[in-house]
Amino acid sequence: MIYFIATFVVFLVVIVAMAIGYIVNKKTIGGSCGGLASVGIDKECDCPEPCDNRKKKNAEAERIAKLKSAEQIL
């Protein structure tokens, strides 16, 4: 039983340390192997054309960027 408690405490300490590290650095955990880009896939779905939802999001992002640049000029 002592091994179970010791192991649980060690895992708990590691999880708490990772949580504190995230809170302090505000940086997400990232992989080291490059993800999908390492196998030649540029985006998740690898579609030739983005879907309608993605087109809407891109258009909205462009509109917001234009508004922000217009505000900076004024």
Q: What Rg, in angstroms, do the CA atoms define?
A: 22 Å
- Give the biggest sheet: none
> What global shape is seen?
elongated
The total strand number stands at 0
Q: Which structural class should the secondary elements be placed in?
A: mainly alpha
Q: Order of helices and strands, N to C?
A: HH
Structural features, described:
The protein is an all-alpha fold. It has one domain. The chain is 62% helix and 0% strand. The protein contains two helices and no strands. The protein has helices spanning 2-25, 52-73. The mean pLDDT is 81.
Task: Give short descriptive properties of this protein.
0% strand, 2 helices, mainly alpha, 74 residues, elongated
Write the layout of secondary structure elements.
Blueprint: H1 2-25, H2 52-73
